[in-house]
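Hey, can you fold this one?
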Amino acid sequence: SVVHYLMASFVAFSAASFFWSADVDGTLTRIGTYSQLLIVVWLIWELAPAEVRVLGLMRAYLGGIFVASMITVYNFASGTTAAQQEAALGVDRWEEGRYSIIGINENDLGLMLAMSVPLIIYLVIRSKSNAMRTFLWIQLIACIGSILLTGSRGALISLVVAAAMLPLSFRFLPASQKLAAGLACIGAAAC
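Sure. Predicted structure:
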């Protein structure tokens, strides 16, 4: 499709920027990241042509994010900061009160969590199962808490933008879920 060609041309332009880059290592890293993202988009396009498969991919992503949220909360409860985790890997870093999971930067984790918020809200609206909706609301709370634990300002801004979807989705929620959504909005505003 046209979108895929535009993405491929962006990756090609990024790769060409290698020749005039002042930071060659950073450029190589960025080219690798953009190439991986292009491959992921292509795989989703090829392997998930039906809506059911796309919803399955969303649920799989949210399952992984839930595990990451729970590990972050566990690290907070056990007092294991991100700096302590990196020290265990041999990386010397300034001690901060930020939490993450081992091997993932706090800012990156925060953005992964913030990206899941629109998916959670979308699946809350689409879900017919009360058990699934309850799980998704719990996951939303865990994601917000974990984003705050990462201490990432960029993730917090992304969360605010993503959470703006919640008040706009009230009209699509069943009556029983409107109360939960209202409480979530009030809780987010209170933070």
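Residues 51-78 form the longest helix (28 residues). Let me know if you want another pass with a different chain boundary.
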